[in-house]
Structures are given as structure tokens and as C-alpha cells.
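Weekly structure sync, notes
Attendees: PL (lead), two postdocs, one rotation student
Agenda item 3: pending single-chain targets
PL asked that the sequence for the first pending target be pasted directly into the notes so everyone works from the same version. It is reproduced below exactly as submitted, 136 residues in total.
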Amino acid sequence: MPKITERKVETRLAAHYRSQDCIVLRQASFSRKRIDIVKKDKNDERVTAIEIKLRDWQGGFRQAKINAIACDQSYLAIWHQHSGPVLSNRKIFEDAGIGLIVIDERFTPTIEIESGVSPPSEIIRDYFRDINLKLA
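Predicted structure, written out during the meeting:
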């Protein structure tokens, strides 16, 4: 199997969500950082941030908490081979309202922990409006 990179996971995950009829932005600017994937289902008002990490779940968790400021929901997506330690720390995610997506070898995402819902955020909606993407 070819080497797995965060960029490859990001590309495949974005394609997956687009095939599910979602609006998807990759590397969306937020403050002085970038959110790996921002997605919005065309039939849902919620905007979701996804931070992708192959193995550094703690760094990804910190970034996902920051992303929750800008979006209604925030997830950490982790490569399946490194999901064990994350699932062992499930309560940390649940308490913070951060969801967990595990990506399998076929690049299929599975939600293992549902994200909480942050107060509605106009930050990311303004971003969508600025680049002329229709929000429901």
C-alpha cells in the first residue's frame, strides 16, 4: 500500500463528502490557522470542521477544540491504525463536545463519537458568503 499522508486522507475524505451532496472546503482559513475540511450538508444549517491527523490525536484534539469556535460541530479524523488510544480517551472527547471520525484503509469515515453542537457561529457562515457558496 502506498504511503498514507494527511493530504491524501484530506483529498479522499473531501471527495467522500462531496459524493454525499455536501459543500466542502479544504484548508479553510480561520484566524492564523487552517481547518483541514469544512463541510456543510446542503439540507442542514450546521457547518462542520474536521481536523485530520494520522496519529497525533492529542495535537488534533487541541486543534479540533479551536475549530469548534468557528463551526457548529468539530471532529477529529484519525487513521484507523492509530485509533485505539483515542477511543480509550473517549470521555475527554465527550466532555469537550468534540467528535471522532475513524478513517479505514478504504478511506471510508466512520463516526465513533458524535460531536456536540456549539452555539451557532456566524464566523464560518460569513466565510461561505464571502466566497459565494450558498448556505441552505
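Discussion points:
- The first helix runs from residue 6 to 19.
- The chain is about 35% helix and 30% strand.
Action: rotation student to compare against the earlier draft before next sync.
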